[in-house]
Each structure stands twice: as structure tokens, then as C-alpha cells.
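hey m, so remember when u said the C-alpha cells were messed up on ur end? i reran from scratch. heres the input so u can diff it against urs
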Amino acid sequence: LGWITPPAPMPTATRVESPYLTAPEAAVYLRTSVQGVYSLVKRGKIKPLPGSDKLRFTREALDSYLHRRR
């Protein structure tokens, strides 16, 4: 009997990053709490994407808020 070669490793699944952030992800990005994100939305400081049952944000919208805040 010859040497048995081990099977090739299975390729790891690559995670597809969404261009949209959820409220908890936005909170991390803005360095605030999820409640802080909800407060910013309520006060009109950041705008979520329309037409979704969940709050979603683009990085551009969050960056715009951060630049205006300075």
C-alpha cells in the first residue's frame, strides 16, 4: 500500500458584506448605542433607507452625519 493523500481542505465560505448597515452595526460605526441610533433617526439627524421594515443605513449617510457633527 502506498501513502494515502489527505483530502484537499474545503474552501471557506466568503462572507458577502452588505452595503447597508443595521441599527446595531450603525451604532458600532458611530460609537454610540442602538438607542442612540434610534434617537438620531427620531431627531432627523440620520436618515434610514426607505421602504424597509427594519432600519438600514448606508455608510455614506452615516459619514455625512459625522462630518456635519464636527
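this time it looks ok to me. The radius of gyration is 20 Å. if urs says something different then somethings off w ur setup not the seq
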